[in-house]
Design brief:
Blueprint: H1 11-23, H2 27-54, H3 65-100, H4 108-111, H5 120-175
Helix pairs in contact: 2-3
Amino acid sequence: MTTPPLATPFGGQQQAQQAQAARDVNTASLCRIGQETVQDIVLRTMEIFQLLRNMQLPNGVTYHPNTHQDRLGKLQEHLRMLSVLFRKLRLVYDKCNENCAGLDSIPPEQLIPFVEDDSSKHEDRLASQSRPATEERREIMEVNKKLKQKNQQLKQIMDQLRNLIWEINSMLAVRS
């Protein structure tokens, strides 16, 4: 004999909240479900083509009717599953569009930093954002220039040392 569940004063509200949470699936998980559905559709389509490739046409060649009927049944089952998957994908697509309908659409021009743009408002915003980047880029270029100069000086010193060692070695060779 089982005991009945305890009744709580907020039991009805908890169940309603859980049901609401189950209905309000976030858009990212819907997109993941949609991606998995598309992968299932591709897999089923590949299986359908595999079945069609392996089927023999009844063109006078002796074939086994049981095998043919079995393959035909598999093909029909795959087609039925494919239509179910497409319906599921449509539902996921509609739900994603419904969830995203309230979002403000941001034009791609505002998301991508352009070098040249005609609108002054966008240029002002870009200029204020790019000032620190321009200064940083200038500093990096100055450091690179100094580094190249130091590398050039080191190369000259190395060449001078190489020449000096060559002369010392040649003088020692003449002495002996």
